[in-house]
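Supplementary Methods S3. Input chains for the assembly prediction are listed below.
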Amino acid sequence: MAVIDVVNLSKAFGPKVVLSNVNLQVEEGESLVVLGGSGSGKTVLLRNIMGLLTPDSGHVAVEGKIIAQLTREELFIVRQSIGMCFQMAALFDSMTVFENVAFGLRRHHKMTEAEIHARVEECLAMVGLKETEKLKPAELSGGMKRRVGFARAIALKPKILLFDEPTTGLDPVMTDVIGRIILELKDELGITSITITHDLKSAFEIADRIALLFRGECIACQAPADFKVNPHPVIQQFLRGDADGPFLQDPPPPKRKTQEAHA
Amino acid sequence: MVLTVFDKIGTGVLRATDTFGDFAVLAGRAFVAIFKRPFDGKNLLNQFQSVGVNSIPVVVLTSLAVSMVFAVQLAFGFRQFQAEGLASQVEGLAVMRELAPVITGLMLAGRIGSAMAAELGTMQVTEQIDALECLATDPIHYLFVPRLLASMLVVPLLTVVAVYIGFWGGYLILVGVEGQSAYVYGNEFYKLLAFRDLRIAIYKGLVFGVIIALVGCWKGYRTQGGAEGVGNAPTSSVVTSSLWILISDFFLTKLLLV
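Predicted structure tokens for the full assembly:
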């Protein structure tokens, strides 16, 4: 049985259909990377998995439990087994790094302060951020915030990790660091994960399978090697990073004019 | 034309019903969440600090100013009828029954209600409230309950403080400026009052505290639209809670004075 089962999931906001009949299954210990253009429904997919949004039709099941049918209490129990890393980290800005990472532990585990300290230190060490416990989120760089977000997400030892564009807005070096951390977390903890990213390099490094969302539909979900040679014009255009092709709804400016402008 | 008018009225009624329903559901969830575990004592103490202790100077100053202005008006008015002695009695009645609770409520709606709306609004647009949900924590329980409890306890207490300061505001004008006897003022201030009046003032403070916390949290929790939304939430919170404080004051006065 798949750990995460997305079945015929559709979601619209007013007249705008964001997800249309999306089907995805993620097996235990598997790392699925979801690619897609901006506004293609990737984040909406994650928010449906977390139960932050309710599907218009279809459903999401996590470990066999249909998220939209759970009571709030049952949903909170399921959420304790899922770690979510937000695009902009979403750290609690009134708390220190230590308090952010310890938050879930204090709420859901009867641990002594010494045990909480040990666990927080362990999580921060995993993401390479020792000695930052006393800092506030405002004192951290973008990459450090993401890593604290990772530490907070893994503190409760979740079985599933969801990464929402963990490398967006970071420099190439920090992007590589984040990619390595995700790989390490996957190898060390054997966690099932879904990662949304635009960064193809880290996508091919961390993925067991890659899915591509295009205009709300999942047009491919396969192993990285197969994905690379998939002849679908949208996939090939996305891999090339070329503006010309079926990917964009509005036609881009002609290439020649852009080159002339630079000249 | 006629259809358009009906359409607009219908849309307005539906929107108002939707808004009120949303507020009622969140308020209900907040009251139910008071009895849920875990109890976050540290968070509650922080709220007592920001809602209560930090509001004392504002309440003291406004209560002093309003009671002094009212005493000046009373002294001037009663002097027309050579009935200056009544000024301290009416001052006591007005401060205890209306001025202290309403001015405290309105000032705290501006100070703490807007702060709650801005804080929760910022948390909403920066996904911190979603992060709470993802960490299996009910935002209503974690964010609403401490603010609601702190407001429910602190606003009545600050109302009592405002009554006490109101006494001294009247004293400064009627005794210090108008030359009335301090002994007479001390007796006359409470002459028309009964213990019931203090109870009514405390009840009003309790209701105003609930309004301030729930409206402030609700406006913040429902913030949308980035910086503009965060900017609008405190304004909307202050206007809405001030309006409800004044409306509920009328009904509470009618109900409790009978």
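Residues 81 and 158 of chain A are 4 Å apart (CA to CA). Chain A is about 40% helix and 25% strand.
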